[in-house]
Design a protein that fits this description.
Two copies of one chain form a homodimer.
Chain A (H helix, E strand, L loop, with lengths): L1 E5 L3 H12 L3 E5 L3 H14 L1 H4 L2 E3 L3 H5 L4 E4 L5 H12 L7 E4 L7 H4 L8 E6 L8 E6 L5 H13 L3 E4 L9 H17 L5 H16 L4 H6 L6 H18 L8 H14 L5 H26 L2
Parallel strand pairs in A: 1-2, 1-4, 2-3, 4-5, 5-6, 7-8
Antiparallel strand pairs in A: 6-7
Helix pairs in contact in A: 1-2
Amino acid sequence: MKIAIVGCGVVGSSWSLVFARAGHDVAIYDRTLPAAEAALAFVSQADPAFAARCRLATDLADVLNGAEYVQESAPERLPIKQALYREMDALLSPTTIVASSTSGFPASQFTEGLKNAARCLVAHPINPPHLIPLVELIPAPWTAPETVNVTRELMRTLGQSPITLTREINGFVVNRLQSALLGEAFRLVEDGICTPAEVDAAVADGLGLRWCFMGPFATIDLNAANGVGEYCANLGPMYYGLAKEQADPREWSPNLVSSIESKMRAAVPPADLPTRRKWRDAFLAAIVAAKRDITGKLGA
Amino acid sequence: MKIAIVGCGVVGSSWSLVFARAGHDVAIYDRTLPAAEAALAFVSQADPAFAARCRLATDLADVLNGAEYVQESAPERLPIKQALYREMDALLSPTTIVASSTSGFPASQFTEGLKNAARCLVAHPINPPHLIPLVELIPAPWTAPETVNVTRELMRTLGQSPITLTREINGFVVNRLQSALLGEAFRLVEDGICTPAEVDAAVADGLGLRWCFMGPFATIDLNAANGVGEYCANLGPMYYGLAKEQADPREWSPNLVSSIESKMRAAVPPADLPTRRKWRDAFLAAIVAAKRDITGKLGA
């Protein structure tokens, strides 16, 4: 397929690699040429053969010219998205699908009234999409079902793992799940139960070891002899009791954040953050590769 | 050290392996001899050399005789724990530490008034402890600091990853974190946003891939250029908005559970559950081994 990448930050660069790796022709565009060049260099670094399928577009009209699917990863500010979608609306062919990488804005906030609105939706990845397969698709009320279906199939052929929300909802699914976990993480630290490092250990050395290959439902389904129904019958009341204790939404206070920040910076000094991010990316790539190997041997 | 295993279900069997694997002498006891024999067979299956360090005890007095540390994994019913701790109290040496594997009962509920109460605490693993390192230590109000310190050091020498709660709290840390995630998972399904399988994908193909080697704080700390303080300044208001939406504790209704159960059983029929559990254990063992290898190469 002919793919257009519009917006080349970290997310757009990673998307460029995802599409080129899967054999698509990728046109790359950013308002600033160096950003587009950096995206191309990122693809080339992964494999020059992938970069051979990419071209740098000269302007928005050029990148959209002939494009069958557009992955938009412009800056996460609503006025920018709104202006960009109005500008694209005048240039799009009547069959092109436009998916936004936005994590925060439902498509209804920047596609209302556009003549191509039925072919616009959100396709929100977890950064970086070339390593993390999950993509959540969120249609606006006016997104055509066919738009969702085509995008979902495209994501599958890319090797991504698409989920489809039935409607727009604040935070979509991924950030809502993360919000729930973070809320309790901050609560435990604020209440002096344990340190941030200990919360992290509870996940990284505990819960996360199952969650990286089974979700929360699959996990509890196998934790009772007869499955999730039995699990809920046994433990539902306990979890309801905890849920009531956890139903006090709290702002993350400056003092609390500052205390956490100082502990994190003691562990990873400011100057070491870039190195630590490289460590994270390398670890993530290795874990994803290991999971793929294990899935090949044991099945999914 | 001389270790006593009291109670030999799945958890006690796995603990037997943890201690024997680390070179300790392990006495194994269960009210029913076949359960103790099964635990020994489980250790032997891992490595006969480990089993050579284990012995089957004939009764409670025998298993506690000379024990420096007791890991209790009796059935998860409070009257059973209370009776067992009273019985042990008459038999313990004045230096033995007794740690309970309980996931649900703080030690204050079954050690109050015991003469050895200062050396009792909870050491709650995530099942199975021979694969999952996390152990949460929860002292009762009367647990001696030295008891906590010795247990934490022991856990470290075993290769486990101990965290220490400052006080007793419902659900401890692990189940509180799981509760938060499950609450939102059930909410998303109940509200018709997506299916249980899609929630599972959001975690297993998304969030969980980072959480298996970085906890929630380490994750957000690296998701802003200058660390967690900047992340919270940028996204705190968004998360507070989500937290307010998530502050409606819900019972898991029979209809909801039944709908989830039927979807899970369509994916894994009842007869396939035992096989699926073997798959989980094999996958978990392989992921943990892969993570160990990656940590060896890239650091923790």
